[in-house]
Write a structure and sequence with these properties.
Layout (H helix, E strand, L loop, with lengths): L3 H19 L6 H24 L16 H8 L8 H9 L9 H8 L2 H11 L4 H11 L1
Helix pairs in contact: 3-6
């Protein structure tokens, strides 16, 4: 069995390769470390989901693998949702938050069903009913 430190090194290398593949560059080492931890948790979720063999589909690592579920939802999920106080505070206090946002662009991204489906596949929550419901809303 491989040592925990060896597994950690393998995962760090995997994260580096993922960063290169998706052109991800972080602001500093602290941000990189935080994103690595999220990446690691998401990869574990993906691998556990796939190894369980309970679904007719598998999940995969993609451009969103370094985002926490709450970040992804706040950025890409369609529909208006009132954020909880903790999320709202983190979004408002983010040092990288723009001083203004062009809502026309944000609405286009928020309504992109492909991003939502990619996230749901990553989270293992796609159901036939949800997909049909989305299609009905689009029609």
């Amino acid at each position: 069995m491989e040592s925990e430190s060896h597994c950690e090194e393998i995962m760090k290398r995997r994260h580096e390769l993922w960063m290169a593949e998706y052109g991800r560059v972080y602001e500093d080492e602290a941000e990189k470390a935080r994103r690595f931890e999220i990446f690691k948790e998401n990869v574990k979720y993906i691998e556990d989901f796939n190894n369980a063999g309970e679904h007719k589909y598998t999940l995969g690592v993609n451009a969103f693998t370094d985002l926490a579920p709450v970040e992804f939802t706040a950025t890409y999920a369609s529909g208006f949702k009132i954020p909880d106080a903790e999320l709202e505070e983190s979004l408002l206090s983010s040092p990288t938050s723009p001083s203004s946002v062009d809502q026309r662009t944000e609405v286009e991204v928020a309504n992109d069903v492909n991003y939502e489906e990619k996230y749901e596949r990553c989270q293992g929550e796609v159901s036939k009913d949800k997909k049909e419901e989305k299609e009905e809303k689009l029609n």
